[in-house]
Amino acid sequence: xxxxxxxxxxxxxxxxxxxxxxxxxxxxxxxxxxxxxxxxxxxxxxxxxxxxxxxxxxxxxxxxxxxxxxxxxxxxxxxxxxxxxxxxxx
Amino acid sequence: xxxxxxxxxxxxxxxxxxxxxxxxxxxxxxxxxxxxxxxxxxxxxxxxxxxxxxxxxxxxxxxxxxxxxxxxxxxxxxxxxxxxxxxxxxxxxxxxxxxxxxxxxxxxxxxxxxxxxxxxxxxxxxxxxxxxxxxxxxxxxxxxxxxxxxxxxxxxxxxxxxxxxxxxxxxxxxxxxxxxxxxxxxxxxxxxxxxxxxxxxxxxxxxxxxxxxxxxxxxxxxxxxxxxxxxxxxxxxxxxxxxxxxxxxxxxxxxxxxxxxxxxxxxxxxxxxxxxxxxxxxxxxxxxxxxxxxxxxxxxxxxxxxxxxxxxxxxxxxxxxxxxxxxxxxxxxxxxxxxxxxxxxxxxxxxxxxxxxxxxx
Lengths: 90, 361
Description:
The complex is a heterodimer of chains A (90) and B (361). Chain A has 90 residues and is of the alpha+beta class.
């Protein structure tokens, strides 16, 4: 199973409860996360696998686990492509 | 990360002129209460360093400085300085390389090297000797500025590429933007209208009890000749210096006396962008966009000490929270009469109107 964790080359600062700004030190690029992105970012240290993240997202937004899982996987893949998170096989 | 091959030039910079010709000197300077000891290799270089420090706003002080003073050594080298054995490249941008070395970091460019030693709060700037005097002077000034900004971070002062004015009510107005966005023109225009000013290009941000504070750096204004012509008597206050380019270096303190300020608490951020439109406009920005635009102008040594970068980001977040932020689409009206920005701000309700004091922000 693929596990995800925050890259240690990314610095984050919460703008408010619903937005977070990330800086990738190596790429010198800033990224802005919306409310859903901020929730997933904040949950990443506790939930390294998509299933746990999807469960938390489904609970928070009252959506089906399948829809949450799709959202989470798309978002994680986007973060991975940008080097914001890194993966490992457990 | 790329491990570097051992280099035949991996030695200390070769001094130039030879050690026997050198006459090292030490200058003690201070800016906003922060002491800096600057050592130079030779008398000729001492003059250039002293002039650069004066332009940045440092003032000479009588030794001794505090024991934990910041330290900067400036050297010249005739040969490529090389990279020491064991250096690991951690960032590369164009022809600039940043290495991690055993005692800190090394920034290497074709024109200069800066070795940072965080534990000692010190930096060594080595400028490569060139025939082209203008190139050499530019390298000295940019290297010195880079080193000083990095050192000031250890005193929790963070550079921001922005002009800074003081509103008639006393609070600050920042104009963060890349070069060529009209910062100096707008700053001079507002100073001409009687506003206070800190700088047209660079300020230091720091935390204070009442919020984020801006402090002055680079006290002279740099104006293109066409822009300078908008202000009566500007030519009379032009000051030559060895780092000058096409812009005029105007001693703004003598042009607009009694309006200079050392520090302010910003309450307004304008992000200027030049457009070809006849009229200028203001567009409110949300916190997220304002923060991203602000961070783009923050002096960040990305790979050095992420915990300092995190502090800078948190400081910028608090700055955005204490300010109203706008995009300023700067048209030809402000190009011809930059002081009209004051009217634009009043019309938009950003500044209190003299006819309607209840609209004060």
